[in-house]
Amino acid sequence: QVQLVESGGGLVQAGASLRLSCAASGLTFSRYSMGWFRQAPGKEREFVTAITWSDGRTLFADSVKGRFTISRDNAKNTVYLQMNSLKPEDTAVYYCAAHRREWSLNQEYGYDYWGQGTQVTVSS
After folding, report:
1. I want to staple 35 with a disulfide (CB 3.0 to 4.6 A). Which of 50, 51, 69, 75 is the partner?
2. Which one, of 31, 80, 35, lies nearest residue 54 by Cα?
3. What is the pLDDT of residues 23-59, one digit of tens each?
4. Residue 60 forms beta bridges with which residues?
5. Which pLDDT tens digit goes with each residue over 49-105?
6. What is the 3 state secondary structure string of 41-106?
C-alpha cells in the first residue's frame, strides 16, 4: 500500500532552519505532484508548498515565500521541505501529500495520499 513518511521535525529557535523529508513508497513517485501542508493548534490545515511531477514547477503560500523551498529526488522517492528563517508562527504539524495531477495543488481535496505528519515547533 501507499505510504508517505515524514521526518525531520523538531524544536528549534526562531531564525533557525530545518529540513523535512517525506519518503514515499507503494506509488510511482515520479508521476505524482507532491505537496506540504501544515496544521497549527486550533487552526485549519493550510497549504504550504507543492512541486509538480512533470517539470518541477513550485508553488508557495505567501507566508513562506522566500523562506521555504521544496525539492524532490525521484531516485530516492523523496520530497524535501527546506525551511529557513523559521518563525514561531511556523509551529505546526507538517504533512506531505501526493497528487496525481498538476493543478489545484494548493487545495487539500485533490490529494490522493497523506502522511501522518511531523511536528515542528519554533520557540521565540
Report:
1. 50
2. 31
3. 999 999 999 999 999 999 999 999 999 999 999 999 9
4. 49
5. 999 999 999 999 999 999 999 999 999 999 999 999 999 999 999 999 999 999 999
6. CCCCCEEEEEECCCCCCEEECCCCCCCEEEEEECCCCEEEEEECCCCHHHCEEEEEEEECCCCCCC
